[in-house]
Design a protein that fits this description.
alpha+beta; GIY-YIG_UvrC_Cho; 36% helix; 21% strand; 16 strands
């Protein structure tokens, strides 16, 4: 027995919106055996644009029963049936959420007439209820009203049953089938062909734009996890309606997947990614030559597309390190912007300044010490080559970090066993670094993982 359901609501997600009307047609595959329809007082105001779309006004529902009053009957009609709707995840999420608020746990198999329409009547320009019914010459008596849409969906479902030569409906109901959980516009073959390997996956909208990027140790398992459960949040419902396709890039290891995910989120800025989109306020040492020819070290916030000679997270760490360099390499505090004003240079008292700030020391002499300080900093940074398993037996994955900076990653022949960056670099794809990637690599190298070191 099928229960064909349609609801009208005050908004697009159940967690903050109410049901204004519900219609249920019980259908045995041949005829309608029972019909139930009622307006519902949603307990919240109906927005004007919803009133304009459905024709249901606040005054119409003022005397209608609240959902908790009709919940027992709704549950009795649905609980042992197959729940059918056009874009079933939307209707099911609302009904399940509001039944749960009344203490009733709905657990049904589901069928989506959008998905079934794509399978049984392929090649149509649109699978919206209005366009699909127009193509199949099904009249809708009351568009955007629960009763009219549910009745039309029942007739549509009857035609789907009649023309289901490839048993798409039975396949969707089969134990283990993921179809009843998938977004209405996503073909199940797209998910089925995903490999069980590490990688990065991309969710695309109807125009092919990437709306979400994720990483996985097992692409198939991780992607499927996005579609389980019945969250009633706005973000989830918008997300399910938006997804039309999935693509992926396989990686040799989970570490590579983590790095590539971070790169791609920064590059594509997908709408449904929340993590890793914050502004990074890391600091750096920037080296420049002033008008007098003296090299100067300045501490500044990292800017996009800028290349500091050294990076750090906290401003206090930068000041501490720069003061240490001033002492060790006898640099001028004024030329390093740690002393301002026209007073006597503190470096003279500390015997670290030889008069460069007063032009008593030639730029060429002073600059040699600045260059030595920068070289010392860079020598302290790790240069590592991380070799690990590849995507197949003929290759191995490779990640290169040079002097504390992420260079890139890629794949080298399985027989190549070297830590020489010059031999490895031609096999790699350079990528921009960011705070997340540097943190991943420093954590990885600091945990005693197997790697080859290349100290430069």
């Amino acid at each position: 027995m099928y229960a064909i359901v349609d609801i009208e609501t005050t908004g697009g997600h159940a967690s903050a919106n109410g049901i204004t009307e519900i219609a249920i047609y019980l259908f045995d595959g041949r005829e309608i055996t029972q019909h139930y329809q009622t307006l519902v007082n949603p307990g919240v105001p109906i927005p004007y644009y919803i009133e304009s779309l459905t024709g249901i006004t606040n005054s119409m529902v003022a005397g209608a029963p609240p959902f908790e009053a009709v919940a027992p009957l709704v549950y009795e009609l649905l609980h042992d049936k197959i729940f059918v709707a056009h874009n079933v995840n939307f209707d099911y999420s609302f009904v399940k959420h509001h039944l749960a608020a009344s203490g009733l746990d709905l657990q049904c198999k589901k069928l989506c007439t959008v998905r079934l329409g794509r399978k049984i009547f392929p090649g149509l320009p649109s699978y919206s209820l209005g366009n699909l019914c127009r193509h199949l010459e099904i009249p809708i008596n009351g568009r955007h009203r629960a009763g009219g849409d549910a009745e039309a969906t029942t007739k549509l479902f009857g035609l789907l049953l009649q023309h289901d030569k490839d048993k798409a409906i039975a396949g969707a109901l089969k134990a283990g089938s993921k179809e009843q959980f998938l977004p209405p516009n996503l073909q199940p073959e797209v998910v089925k062909q995903l490999p069980e390997v590490p990688g990065v996956y991309y969710f695309h909208d109807v125009k092919g734009k990437v709306v979400y990027v994720g990483k996985a140790k097992d692409l198939k398992k991780r992607v499927n996890s996005h579609f389980t459960g019945h969250s009633a949040s706005r973000q989830r419902q918008n997300f399910l309606r938006t997804v039309y396709n999935i693509t992926y890039q396989q990686t040799g290891t989970d570490l590579m997947a983590c790095i590539l995910e971070s790169v791609e989120i920064k590059r594509l800025w997908p709408a449904f990614n929340a993590a890793q989109k914050r502004v990074e306020f890391r600091y750096g040492f920037y080296l420049f030559e002033d008008q007098e020819g003296y090299l100067r070290i300045a501490i500044e916030k990292k800017r996009r597309f800028s290349h500091p000679v050294h990076s750090f997270n906290l401003l206090i760490d930068g000041h501490r390190l720069l003061r240490a360099l001033i002492r060790q390499f006898e640099l001028c505090p004024k030329l390093c912007f740690l002393q301002k004003g026209d007073g006597t240079c503190a470096g003279k008292t500390a015997a670290t300044c030889h008069g460069a700030c007063e032009k008593a020391e030639a730029p060429a002499v002073y600059n040699e010490r600045v260059k030595a300080a920068i070289a010392f900093l860079q020598e302290q940074q790790p240069s590592v080559v991380i070799l690990d398993k590849g995507r197949n037996s003929d290759e191995q994955s490779c990640i290169l970090m040079e002097k504390g900076r992420f260079y890139g990653m890629g794949y080298v022949p399985a027989h190549l066993q070297t830590s020489d960056a010059e031999l490895i670099r031609p096999h790699l794809t350079p990528y921009p670094e960011n705070e997340i990637i540097i943190g991943l690599l420093r954590s990885y190298t600091g945990n005693g993982q197997q790697l080859s070191s290349s100290q430069k």
